[in-house]
Amino acid sequence: MAMLRVSITADDHIQGSEDAATTLVEYGDYECPHCGAAHHVVKQLQRHYGKGLRFVFRNFPLAQIHAQAEAAAEAAEFAGANDKFWEMHDGIYENQQRLGITLLLELAGRIGLAGDDLRKSLESHEYAAKVRQDFLGGVRSGVNGTPAFFINGLRHDGAYDFEILKAAIEGQLLQMKAAG
Amino acid sequence: MTRILPPGTEAPDFALNVTPDQKISLRELRGRPVILAFYPADWSPVCGDQMAVYNEILPEFQKHNAELMGISVDGAWCHAAFAKGRHLHFPLLADFEPKGEVSKRYGAYRDKEGFAERALFVIDKDGKIFWSYCSPIGVNPGAEGILQALEDLHSTGIARSA
């Protein structure tokens, strides 16, 4: 079974505490409609588990089939460098049907970032290397499409609606308990 | 249950259509590693499918000077439309006539369904199979195994010439 091979560091985008019993890592693409659906499931899981869940998002843009995915990932990284990663991340997924440069600039404005700076950052591909690094790390961990989830380091194969992911998390918690 | 050709086997040569009017043979690619990715069919309904992921990883394969080729029983016209629709930047070979013959020779054909397994082969520069892997049909094998094999191939090559 595929394991997460890139450990979580301060460079990651993390919601929740290191002490959480469960860490959920998602490799996602901002244009992928399945990731758009998964976004709401993650929110639901976060509400359900509260402090018991730590969530990490990493980029896996399939740029050849999703023309806007790379720019969106770079825009989220740009926002992240300005401590606004999750605001941009949520904004993109919540408006996924309108994804494009206009939306990215509008979101930047909404969260207090200068649109001109974002435009320059995208034009110079300032964060392309970071996005690619996420992508290649994902490949080495066996990410084979999007979204890909890892629960406490183990790849979750199968569907990813709320009940199924919740059951997978519960299964992991039981195993951890049994292992003491 | 088919058994795919194991490492150490001479990779069977073939000449298959890569476009409706052009063929490519394995022998032509001697001198560099070749990745053969057999897969069931074009137009799988998921986004981020196996070929789409490989497409994004091409630069990593190229660092190893390796040539990637997808193979399925779909015809050359179908492959052309699929490659165009998904912006694929590597060749897709049509194991179309006689249907599945090359897949069969690699032990990567599913008789019952009439299409290829999700079977991966890394072939060394001398035409010998260095690594092979057959994934359960419903499971996209990703690229990790291929990259690991290319790295191992590279370090073996260095050890040999040293």
Describe the structure.
Chain A is α+β, with helices and mostly antiparallel strands and 180 residues long. Chain A is built from seven helices and five strands; from the N terminus they run ββαβαααααββα. Chain A has one domain (23-179): 3-Layer(aba) Sandwich (Glutaredoxin), CATH 3.40.30. Chain A has helices at residues 33-49, 69-81, 85-94, 101-110, 115-123, 128-140, 162-179; strands at residues 13-15, 22-28, 53-59, 148-151, 154-156. In chain A, α1 links the parallel β2 and β3 (53-59). Chain A is globular. The model of chain A has no long low-confidence stretch (mean pLDDT 96). Chain B has 162 residues and is α/β, with parallel strands linked by helices. Chain B has a five-stranded mixed β-sheet. In chain B, strands 1-2 form a two-stranded antiparallel sheet. Chain B has a single domain (15-161), classed as 3-Layer(aba) Sandwich (Glutaredoxin), CATH 3.40.30. Chains A and B meet through α6 of A and α1 of B.
Note the overall shape of chain A. globular
Indicate how many domains the architecture of chain B comprises. 1
Strand elements of chain B, count: 9
Structural class call of chain B reads alpha/beta
The main sheet of chain B orders its strands as: 5-4-3-8-9
Q: What is the CATH topology descriptor of chain B? A: Glutaredoxin
Task: Please sum up the structure shown.
The complex is a heterodimer of chains A (180) and B (162). Chain A has helices at 33-49, 69-81, 85-94, 101-110, 115-123, 128-140, 162-179; strands spanning 13-15, 22-28, 53-59, 148-151, 154-156. Chain A is of the alpha+beta class.
